[in-house]
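Pasting two entries for a bug report.
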Amino acid sequence: MSTSETEVSHGSTDTRFFGQPWALAHLFGVEMWERFSFYGMQGILLIYLYYSVTRGGLGIDEGVAGGIVGAYGGAVYLSTILGAWIADRMLGSERVLFFSAIVIMAGHIALALIPGVAGVGVGLVLVALGSGGLKANATSVVGTLYGTDDDRRDAGFSLFYLGINLGAFFGPILTGLLQSTIGFHFGFGLAAVGMALGLLQYSFGRKQLPEAARHVPNPLPRNRYVWVAVIAVAAIVVIAALVLVGVIRADNLSTIVIVGTVVAAIAYFAVILSSRRIDATERSRVWGFLPLFITSVAFWSLYQQQFTVLTVYSDKRLDRNLFGWEMPVSWVQSINPVFIIVLSGVFAAIWTKLGHRQPPTAVKFALAAIIMGGAFLLFLPFAGGGPNSTPLLAIVGILFVFTVAELLLSPVGLSVATKLAPASFQTQMVALFFLSVALGTAISGWLVQFYDPNNEVPYFAILGGIAVLVGIGLWLGAKPVLKLMKGVR
């Protein structure tokens, strides 16, 4: 028996962390602190961009600011390609995760210390690159803790998702408090402190992870390292030149990220499907992943509007008065994580209880899209209201529906990506799932331009209706998709 097989076998008997392998605790911790910093920063980013200079912001047009946030969010998930490729070809997932955490911390420090647009540019680029590397690889490392037939896998990913959302809950609350009392840059500084704590914890626990987490499945020959460096430098020069000549601008960032993500996704599917390193079963499973990918794009296009349209909505339309005190805008971002913290354990228990009787992944994805579309339709009764016209309780209820949809798709999507992944494309298959998030997130920023507070009904009705139709389509095609997945549910 190989080392990795021995570790997986041991992991199947290790139930010290709420019925899961103890190594999951270390990944739970680093992801919790990374999400604290990520969502803490993102909770105040949009209003920092469009608030006037007298209010501590940069005074950027709201539509452009929303596009920047959407493009940044898309770039985070788009950069998972780079992180996954480095893991699969050069360093292994665990090492990339560690170095990515350092880059993220540097990005938050830049946002906190460098004033103006320069700080935003440097900070967001670093955070996007680091977060992309950490996201795909943390998920891949979690996958190494379980055998292929371990029924605890979906429950383990749901527990891992709990760690994500503990950080996502506390981040916006604390950064929002600092932003509203002593300024934006102190909020960004707290995000840097949070990532530093996550890095410290992971530094102590990383040695306890299985050796499979450090495995490089498809090593790049050493003589090609120079070419990688040349290509990296060339890419940086080209991007810098496009910015300087005005091809890449703040007002078209979301469109550029959308186009780049579509091209990357098509290329990735083509590379994997045409590879000689995968067999017929693995190739069929990748084809089975394609409709899940499309449904995921539709889902995230709506869900990620929490950070664009919903932030503007919360700032201008939501009644945020609590007993005479106005809560910070960023606190709305902490509502969803509360529900996830409560419900992720419930969903984990349900999947564990059902075991092989649980719905197949395609049905879970279909339900997620239908429910997410329904959440947008719930905005319709409040359409056309004035300032402070939407009760806080209404948004709480809508975000509850968001959460149910999310738990049917996001942790399940991470899990199925590891199960459907060909042996030679383990982390890169997870990156493909994140590409669907990248595309959906970028689209969510691009859609801001169509949001008109004076005519909201078409916006929420059309987007909600499209998501419902996508979900119904996948549900009707669930059996053919399951057949393509060759035994993976």
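Entry 2 (this is the one that rendered wrong in the viewer):
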Amino acid sequence: MANSSNTGVDMDPDVARRLFEEGATLVLLGVPLGTEVGIDCKSWQVGPRFKGVKMIPPGLHFLHYCSVNSPSCGGEVGPKTGLFLTLRPRDVLLATWDPEEEDLDFSASGNEEEVSRVRATLRDLDPFLGPYPYEVMRKWVSLTDRLSEEVANRLQPLSGRVCAFSDVIPERQLTHTKDRAEQPRNDAACRSMKEGLDRLPRMKPREGTEMRFSVVPEKKYPPGATPAEITQCSLDQSYALEAVLQEHHQLQPLDLLGELQFAFVCFLIGNVYECFEHWKSLLALLCRSEAAMRTRTPLYLGLVAVLYHQLGEIPPDFFVDIVSQSNFLTSTLQDFFQFAGGPGVDATLRKRAEKFKAHLTKKFRWDFDADLDDCDPVVVELPEGVAAD
């Protein structure tokens, strides 16, 4: 990124001119040599001339970076930090590197006088600004087309930073001798893993650093449900899906797809494992809601498109290592394809689901027609006071 005299791709001259005139600029000053900096789906190591990124298409973007120790100190790469930015045409966003926090400080962007000064010197800065990686723009848009600025701001931590490693603190501040005395002692060998874990202090995310995802209810059935209703709600999770939509996306139900994209991007690019778990949770809820599939056709047509692009951006062997644990993805999508082919489902949705199934079968060699744990019993939780006969 040290030399920004060309984009590195064959860009249409009209597009290049428009991006140069209308694109936003990120001026990032003082970023140490070797720091890994990226925007959206591409990253680089900072060279000695780097001072930012230019020609950024207006819209939502994900800036991410990792501090790197000097080669003399081992050259280790720190955990990734990212933040979502919404840029307008000709925006100039200014940040300086804080060496103590190893983070970018955007406070200068609130100083109109400073921003105006930088804007006036953009032509002088131009040789030090790397062009936006135009070749990944189509990929980025396909991964975030349902993710609005409002949804991204609502989901990301109040701190404004998406961090690969959670910033956690003890649930109990052991400031007094009495508090410490009540803690389990660590001077004896543990007899089990559980005992070892119980001795560790309980931790919680530092306030303002936690993701603000929709809460998927643990109990997928309504209060006072009978055992038969609990079983039905476990097989068809439409009640739980409607509860999530009512609580978190009542005005715009399709924003749930934006949340699915947010979680996926934060995992794929930001390396946040918590977001992968939330992606799985939302996906399972959507794919196992049979009744909702008949009443919320736009939501499920959008889901097919979202999954098509998400699964197309990761290599097949990725699933061998992570997603295929307990056949999660194949069993979840198998339920989806079964319900999508059922009575009462919109004909367009049924056809798109069939094409998507054929695509995945060809790409990943998955067999969605095989019996997956077909004989396993459905485990349900009985309400309090209800006993099994």
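Dev reply: Rendering is fixed now. As a check, the viewer should reflect this: The first helix runs from residue 13 to 22.
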